[in-house]
Design goal:
single chain, globular, alpha/beta
Protein backbone atom coordinates (compact mmCIF):
# COMPACT_ATOMS: atom_id res chain seq x y z
CA UNK A 1 0.00 0.00 0.00
CA UNK A 2 3.05 2.34 -0.03
CA UNK A 3 3.27 2.21 -3.86
CA UNK A 4 2.94 5.51 -5.73
CA UNK A 5 1.72 5.82 -9.32
CA UNK A 6 2.93 8.81 -11.33
CA UNK A 7 0.81 9.37 -14.44
CA UNK A 8 1.56 11.64 -17.37
CA UNK A 9 4.26 12.67 -19.81
CA UNK A 10 7.61 11.16 -20.66
CA UNK A 11 9.52 13.10 -23.29
CA UNK A 12 12.98 14.18 -24.32
CA UNK A 13 14.30 17.62 -23.43
CA UNK A 14 16.57 19.17 -26.05
CA UNK A 15 18.45 21.57 -23.77
CA UNK A 16 19.95 24.66 -25.41
CA UNK A 17 22.58 26.26 -23.19
CA UNK A 18 23.61 29.93 -23.25
CA UNK A 19 26.74 29.01 -25.24
CA UNK A 20 24.56 27.43 -27.97
CA UNK A 21 25.43 23.82 -27.19
CA UNK A 22 22.56 21.30 -27.26
CA UNK A 23 22.10 18.17 -25.15
CA UNK A 24 19.29 15.61 -25.13
CA UNK A 25 17.98 14.26 -21.83
CA UNK A 26 14.96 12.36 -20.59
CA UNK A 27 12.29 14.65 -19.18
CA UNK A 28 8.64 15.49 -18.70
CA UNK A 29 7.19 16.58 -15.39
CA UNK A 30 5.81 13.20 -14.38
CA UNK A 31 8.80 11.29 -15.74
CA UNK A 32 11.07 13.42 -13.56
CA UNK A 33 8.82 13.11 -10.50
CA UNK A 34 8.80 9.31 -10.76
CA UNK A 35 12.60 9.25 -10.98
CA UNK A 36 12.87 11.50 -7.94
CA UNK A 37 10.75 9.02 -5.96
CA UNK A 38 12.64 6.01 -7.29
CA UNK A 39 16.07 7.46 -6.54
CA UNK A 40 15.02 7.96 -2.93
CA UNK A 41 14.01 4.32 -2.61
CA UNK A 42 10.25 4.75 -3.00
CA UNK A 43 8.02 2.11 -4.57
CA UNK A 44 6.83 3.90 -7.71
CA UNK A 45 5.35 3.06 -11.12
CA UNK A 46 5.20 5.34 -14.14
CA UNK A 47 1.96 5.34 -16.16
CA UNK A 48 2.25 6.76 -19.66
CA UNK A 49 3.05 6.07 -23.31
CA UNK A 50 6.68 5.72 -24.38
CA UNK A 51 7.91 5.25 -27.94
CA UNK A 52 9.83 2.24 -29.20
CA UNK A 53 12.28 4.60 -30.93
CA UNK A 54 15.81 5.34 -29.72
CA UNK A 55 14.70 8.18 -27.46
CA UNK A 56 11.97 5.96 -26.02
CA UNK A 57 14.41 3.17 -25.28
CA UNK A 58 16.57 5.69 -23.42
CA UNK A 59 13.53 6.91 -21.45
CA UNK A 60 12.64 3.37 -20.34
CA UNK A 61 16.25 2.69 -19.41
CA UNK A 62 16.34 5.85 -17.29
CA UNK A 63 13.24 4.81 -15.37
CA UNK A 64 14.54 1.28 -14.81
CA UNK A 65 17.93 2.54 -13.64
CA UNK A 66 16.22 4.67 -10.98
CA UNK A 67 14.07 1.81 -9.72
CA UNK A 68 10.79 2.87 -11.34
CA UNK A 69 8.33 0.05 -12.14
CA UNK A 70 7.61 -0.11 -15.90
CA UNK A 71 4.54 -2.33 -15.59
CA UNK A 72 2.14 0.52 -16.47
CA UNK A 73 4.16 1.84 -19.43
CA UNK A 74 2.38 1.57 -22.79
CA UNK A 75 4.74 1.14 -25.75
CA UNK A 76 3.93 2.84 -29.07
CA UNK A 77 5.44 3.30 -32.51
CA UNK A 78 4.62 7.03 -32.39
CA UNK A 79 7.83 9.11 -32.18
CA UNK A 80 8.94 10.48 -28.83
CA UNK A 81 7.43 13.78 -27.69
CA UNK A 82 10.05 16.54 -27.62
CA UNK A 83 10.59 19.69 -25.55
CA UNK A 84 13.00 22.46 -26.47
CA UNK A 85 14.37 23.83 -23.19
CA UNK A 86 16.31 27.08 -23.61
CA UNK A 87 18.40 28.13 -20.62
CA UNK A 88 19.14 31.75 -19.74
CA UNK A 89 22.29 32.97 -18.00
CA UNK A 90 20.85 32.12 -14.56
CA UNK A 91 20.04 28.55 -15.56
CA UNK A 92 16.26 29.10 -15.73
CA UNK A 93 14.55 27.21 -18.55
CA UNK A 94 11.84 28.31 -20.97
CA UNK A 95 10.11 25.59 -22.97
CA UNK A 96 8.58 24.93 -26.37
CA UNK A 97 6.96 21.58 -27.11
CA UNK A 98 6.62 19.37 -30.19
CA UNK A 99 3.66 17.12 -29.47
CA UNK A 100 1.54 16.49 -32.59
CA UNK A 101 1.33 12.77 -33.50
CA UNK A 102 3.93 11.89 -30.85
CA UNK A 103 4.05 9.31 -28.09
CA UNK A 104 2.84 10.97 -24.88
CA UNK A 105 -0.62 12.38 -25.77
CA UNK A 106 -2.28 9.13 -26.88
CA UNK A 107 -2.93 7.59 -23.45
CA UNK A 108 -6.48 6.18 -23.32
CA UNK A 109 -9.00 6.04 -20.49
CA UNK A 110 -8.78 2.24 -20.26
CA UNK A 111 -4.98 2.37 -20.07
CA UNK A 112 -5.11 5.03 -17.35
CA UNK A 113 -7.54 3.10 -15.16
CA UNK A 114 -5.04 0.23 -14.93
CA UNK A 115 -3.31 2.37 -12.29
CA UNK A 116 -6.04 1.47 -9.77
CA UNK A 117 -5.50 -2.31 -9.95
CA UNK A 118 -3.97 -2.95 -7.52
CA UNK A 119 -4.86 0.21 -5.64
CA UNK A 120 -1.79 2.36 -4.92
CA UNK A 121 -1.24 4.49 -1.84
CA UNK A 122 -0.97 7.70 -3.87
CA UNK A 123 -1.31 9.17 -7.34
CA UNK A 124 0.79 12.03 -8.75
CA UNK A 125 -0.43 13.86 -11.88
CA UNK A 126 0.24 17.13 -13.69
CA UNK A 127 2.10 19.04 -16.39
CA UNK A 128 1.33 17.95 -19.98
CA UNK A 129 -0.55 14.96 -18.58
CA UNK A 130 -3.45 17.31 -17.82
CA UNK A 131 -3.12 19.33 -21.03
CA UNK A 132 -2.56 17.12 -24.08
CA UNK A 133 -5.61 15.17 -25.21
CA UNK A 134 -6.67 12.38 -25.11
CA UNK A 135 -4.14 11.80 -22.30
CA UNK A 136 -5.51 14.76 -20.31
CA UNK A 137 -9.07 13.43 -20.39
CA UNK A 138 -7.85 9.93 -19.47
CA UNK A 139 -5.88 11.17 -16.46
CA UNK A 140 -8.69 13.49 -15.32
CA UNK A 141 -10.98 10.44 -15.48
CA UNK A 142 -8.46 8.43 -13.46
CA UNK A 143 -8.38 11.12 -10.77
CA UNK A 144 -12.19 11.20 -10.66
CA UNK A 145 -12.26 7.40 -10.24
CA UNK A 146 -9.93 7.33 -7.22
CA UNK A 147 -11.52 6.30 -3.91
CA UNK A 148 -11.51 8.92 -1.12
CA UNK A 149 -8.71 7.24 0.81
CA UNK A 150 -6.22 7.38 -2.07
CA UNK A 151 -3.88 10.37 -1.73
CA UNK A 152 -3.78 12.55 -4.87
CA UNK A 153 -1.06 15.12 -5.58
CA UNK A 154 -1.37 17.58 -8.48
CA UNK A 155 1.42 19.72 -9.94
CA UNK A 156 -0.26 21.79 -12.70
CA UNK A 157 3.09 23.06 -14.08
CA UNK A 158 1.07 25.05 -16.61
CA UNK A 159 2.56 25.50 -20.09
CA UNK A 160 0.66 28.40 -21.72
CA UNK A 161 2.37 28.00 -25.11
CA UNK A 162 0.80 24.52 -25.51
CA UNK A 163 -2.75 25.46 -24.48
CA UNK A 164 -5.00 25.57 -27.55
CA UNK A 165 -8.30 25.42 -25.62
CA UNK A 166 -7.90 27.61 -22.52
CA UNK A 167 -11.52 27.23 -21.43
CA UNK A 168 -11.53 23.42 -21.72
CA UNK A 169 -8.15 23.13 -20.03
CA UNK A 170 -9.22 25.40 -17.18
CA UNK A 171 -12.42 23.41 -16.61
CA UNK A 172 -10.56 20.09 -16.59
CA UNK A 173 -7.82 21.41 -14.31
CA UNK A 174 -10.39 22.88 -11.91
CA UNK A 175 -12.07 19.47 -11.56
CA UNK A 176 -8.76 17.74 -10.90
CA UNK A 177 -7.59 20.35 -8.38
CA UNK A 178 -10.85 20.01 -6.44
CA UNK A 179 -10.04 16.32 -5.86
CA UNK A 180 -6.40 17.02 -4.93
CA UNK A 181 -5.13 16.38 -1.42
CA UNK A 182 -1.80 18.10 -2.14
CA UNK A 183 -1.27 20.79 -4.77
CA UNK A 184 2.21 21.97 -5.69
CA UNK A 185 1.81 25.21 -7.68
CA UNK A 186 4.34 27.83 -8.74
CA UNK A 187 3.55 31.53 -8.60
CA UNK A 188 3.39 31.39 -12.42
CA UNK A 189 0.79 28.60 -12.27
CA UNK A 190 -1.35 30.59 -9.85
CA UNK A 191 -1.03 33.75 -11.96
CA UNK A 192 -2.51 31.83 -14.90
CA UNK A 193 -5.25 30.25 -12.78
CA UNK A 194 -6.21 33.48 -11.00
CA UNK A 195 -4.94 36.50 -12.98
CA UNK A 196 -4.29 39.52 -10.80
CA UNK A 197 -4.64 37.66 -7.50
CA UNK A 198 -1.91 37.42 -4.90
CA UNK A 199 -0.46 33.87 -5.01
CA UNK A 200 -1.42 33.13 -1.41
CA UNK A 201 -4.96 34.38 -2.02
CA UNK A 202 -5.15 32.10 -5.07
CA UNK A 203 -3.88 29.20 -2.93
CA UNK A 204 -6.51 29.93 -0.28
CA UNK A 205 -9.17 29.75 -2.99
CA UNK A 206 -7.93 26.30 -4.05
CA UNK A 207 -8.15 25.10 -0.45
CA UNK A 208 -11.67 26.53 -0.19
CA UNK A 209 -12.57 24.60 -3.37
CA UNK A 210 -11.41 21.28 -1.94
CA UNK A 211 -7.61 20.97 -1.96
CA UNK A 212 -6.09 19.72 1.30
CA UNK A 213 -2.93 21.85 1.16
CA UNK A 214 -1.31 24.07 -1.47
CA UNK A 215 2.48 24.43 -1.64
CA UNK A 216 3.33 27.67 -3.45
CA UNK A 217 6.83 27.66 -4.95
CA UNK A 218 8.59 30.78 -6.21
CA UNK A 219 11.95 29.79 -7.70
CA UNK A 220 14.67 30.52 -5.12
CA UNK A 221 12.16 32.29 -2.88
CA UNK A 222 10.50 30.70 0.14
CA UNK A 223 7.73 28.13 -0.22
CA UNK A 224 4.40 29.20 1.21
CA UNK A 225 2.24 26.36 2.49
CA UNK A 226 -1.49 27.11 2.73
CA UNK A 227 -3.82 24.74 4.54
CA UNK A 228 -7.31 24.83 5.96
CA UNK A 229 -7.05 27.64 8.50
CA UNK A 230 -3.25 27.93 8.57
CA UNK A 231 -0.30 29.25 6.54
CA UNK A 232 3.47 28.86 6.84
CA UNK A 233 6.51 30.31 5.04
CA UNK A 234 9.43 27.89 4.56
CA UNK A 235 12.82 29.21 3.36
CA UNK A 236 14.67 27.36 0.60
CA UNK A 237 18.41 26.54 0.61
CA UNK A 238 20.73 28.91 -1.22
CA UNK A 239 22.81 27.08 -3.84
CA UNK A 240 24.91 27.70 -6.94
CA UNK A 241 22.45 27.01 -9.76
CA UNK A 242 23.55 24.99 -12.78
CA UNK A 243 20.01 24.96 -14.16
CA UNK A 244 16.45 24.59 -12.86
CA UNK A 245 15.40 21.70 -15.14
CA UNK A 246 13.39 19.19 -13.10
CA UNK A 247 13.66 21.07 -9.81
CA UNK A 248 9.92 21.49 -9.32
CA UNK A 249 9.30 17.86 -10.26
CA UNK A 250 11.91 16.79 -7.72
CA UNK A 251 10.18 18.91 -5.08
CA UNK A 252 6.79 17.31 -5.75
CA UNK A 253 8.04 13.74 -5.90
CA UNK A 254 10.07 14.17 -2.72
CA UNK A 255 7.17 15.69 -0.79
CA UNK A 256 4.74 12.96 -1.82
CA UNK A 257 7.14 10.12 -1.01
CA UNK A 258 7.94 11.56 2.42
CA UNK A 259 4.25 12.06 3.16
CA UNK A 260 3.29 8.54 2.11
CA UNK A 261 6.12 6.88 4.03
CA UNK A 262 5.22 8.85 7.16
CA UNK A 263 1.87 7.07 7.18
CA UNK A 264 -0.10 10.31 7.13
CA UNK A 265 -3.07 10.69 4.81
CA UNK A 266 -5.25 13.65 3.93
CA UNK A 267 -6.23 14.27 7.57
CA UNK A 268 -2.56 14.75 8.43
CA UNK A 269 -2.46 17.80 6.17
CA UNK A 270 -4.12 19.74 8.97
CA UNK A 271 -0.82 19.42 10.88
CA UNK A 272 1.07 22.55 9.86
CA UNK A 273 4.26 21.39 11.59
CA UNK A 274 4.33 18.09 9.68
CA UNK A 275 3.69 19.86 6.36
CA UNK A 276 6.43 22.37 7.13
CA UNK A 277 9.02 19.68 7.89
CA UNK A 278 8.12 17.72 4.77
CA UNK A 279 8.32 20.91 2.68
CA UNK A 280 11.83 21.58 3.99
CA UNK A 281 12.84 18.11 2.85
CA UNK A 282 11.32 18.66 -0.59
CA UNK A 283 12.94 22.10 -0.96
CA UNK A 284 16.35 20.64 -0.09
CA UNK A 285 15.96 17.94 -2.74
CA UNK A 286 14.96 20.55 -5.33
CA UNK A 287 17.96 22.71 -4.39
CA UNK A 288 20.30 19.76 -4.94
CA UNK A 289 18.74 19.19 -8.37
CA UNK A 290 19.42 22.84 -9.25
CA UNK A 291 23.16 22.32 -8.71
CA UNK A 292 23.21 19.72 -11.49
CA UNK A 293 22.89 19.91 -15.25
CA UNK A 294 19.52 18.56 -16.42
CA UNK A 295 16.88 16.75 -14.37
CA UNK A 296 19.03 14.86 -11.88
CA UNK A 297 17.21 14.33 -8.55
CA UNK A 298 19.26 13.33 -5.51
CA UNK A 299 19.41 9.84 -4.05
CA UNK A 300 18.09 9.26 -0.54
CA UNK A 301 21.65 9.19 0.80
CA UNK A 302 22.51 12.50 -0.86
CA UNK A 303 19.36 14.10 0.48
CA UNK A 304 19.90 12.83 4.02
CA UNK A 305 23.48 14.13 3.98
CA UNK A 306 22.32 17.59 2.85
CA UNK A 307 19.62 17.68 5.52
CA UNK A 308 22.10 16.63 8.21
CA UNK A 309 24.56 19.33 7.11
CA UNK A 310 21.86 21.99 7.35
CA UNK A 311 20.88 21.20 10.95
Amino acid sequence: MSRIVVAGDALVDLIIRPDGSIAAAGGGGEYNASRAIGRQGGAVAFLGRISRDRFGRDLRAGLAQDGVDLGLVIETDDPTTLALAELDASGAASYRFYTAATSAPGLTAAEALRALDPLPAALHVGTLGLLLRPMADAIAGLVAATPPGLLVMVDPNIRPLVIDDPRGYRERLTRVLARADIVKASTEDLAWLAPGDDPVAAARALVADGAGVVLVTDGPGPVRAVGDGWERTIPTPSVQVADTVGAGDTFGGTFLLAWVTSGRGRSGLRDATAVTETTRRAATAAAIACTRVGAEPPTREELEAALAASR
